[in-house]
Amino acid sequence: MKIKIESTDEHVTLDGVQCRVWKGTTERGVECNAFIHRLNVATGQEAEFEAELCAERPPMVFANVE
What we know:
Elements: E1 3-14, E2 17-26, E3 31-36, H1 46-56, E4 61-64
Parallel strand pairs: 1-4
Antiparallel strand pairs: 1-2, 2-3
């Protein structure tokens, strides 16, 4: 299965861990959310990734999910 995801400015706390919410769609069109706590980026590209992510969707919204 493949999922295409897009970052949002929303953050939630799941099991005591803060995660950014990413909204996605499967290849067959099923909508879903991904709650991402960590994401590994290729060595040497961390700052570029962070700058792109923050420029696209700055972290602004926080919510708690139980």
